Protein: 16S rRNA (cytosine(967)-C(5))-methyltransferase
Amino acid sequence: MSKPVREVALDILLQIEKNQAYSNLLLNQTVNRSKLDPRDVGLLTEIVYGTIQRRDTLDYFLQSFVKKGVNSLQDWVKVLLRLSVYQLVYLDRVPDRAVVHEAVTIAKKRGHKGISGMVNGVLRSFVREGVPSFDTITDETKRLAIESSHPIWLIKRWIDQYGFEETKKMCQSSLEPPNVTVRVNQIKATVEEVISLLGEEGLKVRKGDLSSDAIIIESGNVFQTNTYKQGYVTVQDESSMLVGRAIGAKPGMMVADTCAAPGGKSTHIAEQMDDTGTLMSFDLHDHKVKLIHQQTSRLGLTCITAEAGDARNIHQKAIGPFDRILVDAPCSGFGVIRRKPDIKWSKTENDIKGIQSIQLEILDAVAPLLKQGGTLIYSTCTVDKDENEESVANFLARHPEFQLDHTLKDRLPKKALSRYQEGMITILPQDFQTDGFFIASLVKQ
Ligand SMILES: C[S@@+](CC[C@H](N)C(=O)[O-])C[C@H]1O[C@@H](n2cnc3c(N)ncnc32)[C@H](O)[C@@H]1O
Structure:
């Protein structure tokens, strides 16, 4: 018999807690291997993401019900209580009795009688006494950290960079479920044509809010449609689609994408090149290069070559010069917390300096490979200014042959320019309910 869904959720959450495993990868693996009913897959996903997303809020709720404090508990008991309280507070469709009963059954199976009694006592008291208030937390930064479940160091950093009100909005929008959006392969069809194809296959869809290439999937599984399988669309966030537009690639050009897997932006660029010219895509990891190959063959694109390579050494290859180079750099990922909530807990403030130095090494390495007059696009899916504006400023200080490109704004929709500054745009998650993104365009003189 297959394991009950909450026990599967407990196993996944424990692996994430102990091994810093990625929630999305682990969930996919588990769903692919298990015999879960499709309705249970929905509940499992909701419990796993929700419990990670609200971790510190849940611990705050539990604190007054656990005598010696939440941190005194064994990991599995702590995680079991968290996922149970998550359901009690945030999931209306699960009756309280069922949540408590399931938790006690799991505790009996995994621990001794004392533990199942404690789990029963804590959860019953919680149901009886109700959700604790945040009003006792007087410090507003601490309150925001606990109420929105973000580490306090990150909140302080964002307040320094964006101010309190913008930080509050960013935290709130990081808790919202992300849209599922697809980018239309405009070699094969127009946005309108694909909207009707998806509609005929039973999906509820509408035009995107930010990008002219985008369709938002309101209901239905796009991966199971023929429209997807036959290469009419690619699943991609709307703000990420702006990068493909920012690069301004044209048919016949020589283009390099240095950090390319799984290929979302490479395939967009190739579509704009009308699948002519040459697009050389690289990624550090061999296994990820396979993902680029899968996407190019599904989309029927032939102008992309993809191979493993460290972008920090790319100048040693006998390639180029290129008309366009994209560095979609490895980054802290703080713009995609809605999709990967474990980022909040796995990254530390110290990591940021290390990531920034890799970004600069990559930028330094690609600089000689660009043609004179060519464009270098630097993008990240983070909102951290050290990895964005500061990385660009550092690069420009060392490379006087590069300048910020003021024509960037002409290649992007007007709507996306609300935070535009001299050749750079920032999109925060609260602006358009998309991922947070940063794009800088640099021209070589
Ligand atoms: C933000 S992701 C790229 C997403 C991709 N551009 C897309 O649109 O699908 C960053 C990628 O950089 C790769 N990476 C990290 N360090 C690298 C390096 N030194 N050289 C090349 N690729 C690297 C990672 O494996 C990861 O796939």
Notes: The first helix runs from residue 5 to 19.
